[in-house]
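Aggregate trends can hide what the representation actually does to any particular protein. In the encoding step, the backbone of a single protein was reduced to a row of integers, each denoting a local shape. The record that follows shows the chain in one-letter code together with its fold in token form.

***
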Amino acid sequence: MYILGIDPGLAIVGWGVVEYHNNKFTTLGYGAITTPAGIDVEQRLLMIYDGLDKIIKKYKPDQMAIEELFFNTNQKTAIAVAEARGVIMLCGIQNKIPLYEYTPLQVKQAVVGYGRAEKKQVIAMTNVILDLKESPKLDDTSDALAIAVCHGHTSGSALKDFYNQKKKKLL
């Protein structure tokens, strides 16, 4: 199963695609969609949609996992991230990809085994799980890969059903 992990944002959308099979992960690709400050929000949202659509068309993920909105004290930032999440979710839906959401606590628990783990611990463990020689340049990209790993670890029975359905189609 190919899983697309997404760390949403308006300036930076981290993404990572992994294959999860027999409790093993293989990294297929990762990066970030970036939008420049100083242009209209609508244009930035369109850039996010177009960038994500290209990634989906290239990797053809079976499922998409996205981080739930963590509401902090900056309401303006939260609104911008919520708008970006909406565009990301729309893109997934229009490409007929099932969508799953995870809180930061769930991601930390699934990747590190401790829901209050620090960001450095999550990045280090994600690198180990995915056998990455070095961390991606942007934390947003590392976060997206961690979200994909979280989905693989927490959706085991759903993944078994997915592979059984694929086998039946092949037979």
